[in-house]
Amino acid sequence: MDDKNKKHITSYQTYGIVLVGLLILTFISVGVTWIELGPLTVTVALLVASVKVFIVLTYFMHLKYDSLFIKLMVAGIFILFAVIIVITFLDYWFR
Amino acid sequence: MAKLDTPALEQSFLNNHGKNPIRAWLFSTDHKRIGILYLLSIGFFFLVGGLLGGLMRIELIAPGETIMDPQTYNGVFTVHGLIMIFLVVIPGLSAVFGNFFLPILIGARDVAFPKLNLLSWWLYIFGAILAISSQFLGSGAPDTGWTFYAPYSTETGSNVVLAVFSAFVLGFSSILTGLNFIVTVHRMRAPGMTWFKMPLFPWSLYATAWIQVLATPIVGVTFLMIVAERLFQIGFFDPSLGGDPLLYQHLFWIYSHPAVYIMILPAMGVVTEIIPTFAKKHIFGYKAIALSSLAIAAVGYFVWGHHMYTAGMSGTARWFFSFLTFIVAVPSAIKVFNWVATMHKGSITVRTPFLYTLAFIFLFMIGGLTGLWLGALATNVHLHDTAFVVAHFHYIIFGGMGFAFFAGLHYWYPKMFGKMYDEKLANVAFVIIFIGFNLLYFPLFIIGMQGMPRRYADYLPEYTGGHFWSTMGAIVLITGALLMIYNLIIRTRKKGTPAEMNPWGGKSLEWTLESPPKEHNFDEIPTITENPYNY
Q: Which residue ranges make up each domain of chain B?
């Protein structure tokens, strides 16, 4: 890969929009704690956090512009993470 | 450090070329110098940890109080574990031989991020200072054991916060080294070096690096959760605050079981380099060994629950973890079969590194197979938290990682320092270390099966014999280790002969360089056309 000839491929405007989006999602995370959702409180918090992770990976960490190989590596890590969560819950679900 | 008295040494990375020597070493971004900084630091902490272990053995030589009270004993075994795990065996082979030889073995001039590499070492030193300080500052030495199990670790009055923070900082060092090695292997291989032309030590470092990067953050966050619970009463683990103590054990072992593979995978890589060199034969099952490193790294993530069989986990989780524990033995066994098959009908020369390698296989087999006793649900109930676990663990970590470290040190010492050590003395030290090791740890299997609990400062009279012989073994082992250190440092410095470029007749790239190598390793980056084990 010819790194020297690579240009910045994401505009400052996009970064600005992403930043505002992340801040809004943060307010949502905090905001839902004031609403009584029962067990769904954690679900909502995790969903919002997942969306934020997706945005950060895609734009701030340039995954959108990376090769398929790198994307697959990241996907592999998320699969690993998911498997660890599922195995942990083999304890909690069947205790 | 070797004296610069030959032309090769004059031109090597060891020469400061007129710069301030202390500054030139402490702020060097040369991967070889950083590897030696790690060697010196890890060697120092190995001696400190070994001294603490020796004190524990003296306390246990006879029933009753011998040299320390039980609370001091708790502090000593905690800091022994903290130092040995986080400062010695986790960085161990990766940080020393990985730093020194990874770029050379793949035909590169340095790692991908040299400054980050130096930062890793400085973080290691900072974490080490915090770990040692935790013994002396605050409200007393931490007394939880290196596992920091909650809820005790969230309640004890001892200095847990500083101890876990030191492990947190050391974790950053480990992550940065892993990150550096992953990028180095992906981006810095010499032209023509495809994945399956890469030597097997870099393969093992690559697999290890993934564990370092992906598993370490989990324990880092877990340690922060302990701090949050202690300082702000946030209920993660303490049931009285709404927490779950088993959650701590899950999170801790999600990292700390893969951490065992951080320790042992590079060790396997080192012996995989040594065996073909001394058998003068192509490594048997190259691809199987390479891929089994990845398989160990992958499956090793999913077996953490075997540390928790008696903790109150669900039955479903227990049989699932037991099943996976038996599965993870398969890729390890593949490696052992391939090492033995490489030796079969080889033209074997028995030199010091090869002796340590044979000992590694023998001891690792004992450690590995007793791991299956512990991995089986029924026997685990009997053996859990006994001296049997201590023996198993030390056979894997010291018998495995430690002996492989000594093997690598004797194998690459002439390349690193440009001097050849006294091999007869090295062999004598090996025999003493091997006997001392087995005398120290084997009796613990027996008294463990008889019911001797671990982490106890005192015991019933029926365990006296086992403890006595174990302490005798510690004395023999320490004697052998001191002889090895004398041989490698003092005697070689005074009487060592200049090392040849390729003293063992190896085929991989490090043996094409001067002993010791120049600052930038290669005058011209080599083009790789064949497998590194073509004997």
A: 7-512
ipTM of the complex: 0.83
The answer to whether residue B242 scores a pLDDT higher than 70 is yes
3-class secondary structure, B107:
coil
For residue range A59-88, list pLDDT tens digits in order. Answer: 999 898 889 999 999 999 999 999 999 999
CB B307 within 8 A of CB B377: no
Are B314 and A95 a contacting pair at CB < 8 A?
yes
**How far apart are alpha carbons B404 and B398 in whole angstroms?**
9
Burial (CB count <10 Å: 0-12, 13-18, 19+), residue B392: buried
Instruction: Supply the pLDDT for residue A32.
Output: 87
* Predicted confidence (pLDDT) per residue in A14-66, tens digit: 999 999 999 999 999 999 888 888 888 888 999 999 999 999 999 999 898 88
**Cα B221 to Cα B87, B128, B324, distances in angstroms:** 19, 19, 26
Instruction: Provide DSSP, B113-181.
Output: -HHHHHHHHHHHHHHHHHHHHHHHSTTS---STTTT-TTHHHH-SSSHHHHHHHHHHHHHHHHHHHHHH
Matching residue, tokens 């490594």: B283
Q: Model pTM?
A: 0.93
Query: How many angstroms separate the CA of residue A13 from the nearest CA in chain B?
Result: 30
How big, in percent rounded to 5, are the helix, strand and coil portions of chain A?
80, 0, 20
Average pLDDT over residues B220-236: 93
List of chain A residues whose C-beta atoms are within 8 Å of the C-beta of residue B302: 83-84, 87
With cut-offs at 50, 70 and 90, classify the pLDDT of residue B2.
very low
Nearest to B461 by CA among B452, B472, B470, B471: B452
Judged by CB atoms closer than 8 Å, whether chains meet at A84 and B316 is answered as no
Q: Most A CBs within 10 Å: which of B302, B310, B322, B325, as the mutation test of the A interface? A: B302
Amino acid at B486: Y
Domain B7-512 adopts which CATH fold?
Cytochrome C Oxidase; Chain A (1.20.210)
Q: Side-chain half-sphere of B144: how many Cα atoms within 13 Å? A: 23
Whose CA is closest to B31, among B141, B123, B115, B147? B115
Which residue ranges make up each domain of chain A?
11-61, 63-95
Q: Concatenate the DSSP letters of all residues of B482-502 into one string.
A: HHHHIIIIIIHHHHPEEPPSS
Q: B282: alpha, beta or left, given left = phi > 0 and alpha = psi -120 to 50?
A: beta
Size (chain A), residues = 95
Provide CB contacts within 8 A for B245, sequence distance 6+: B149, B150, B151, B237, B238, B239
Whether A84 and B302 lie within 8 Å, measured CB to CB: yes
pLDDT digits (tens, 9 = 90+) for B497-512: 999 999 999 999 999 9
**Identity (one letter) of the amino acid at B450?**
Q
Rounded-to-integer distance, Cα B66 and Cα B150, Å: 30
Rounded CA separation A52/A23 (Å): 9
Q: Which of A80, A81, A91 to mutate to test the interface with B (most CBs of B within 10 A)?
A: A91
- Whole-number mean pLDDT of chain B? 94
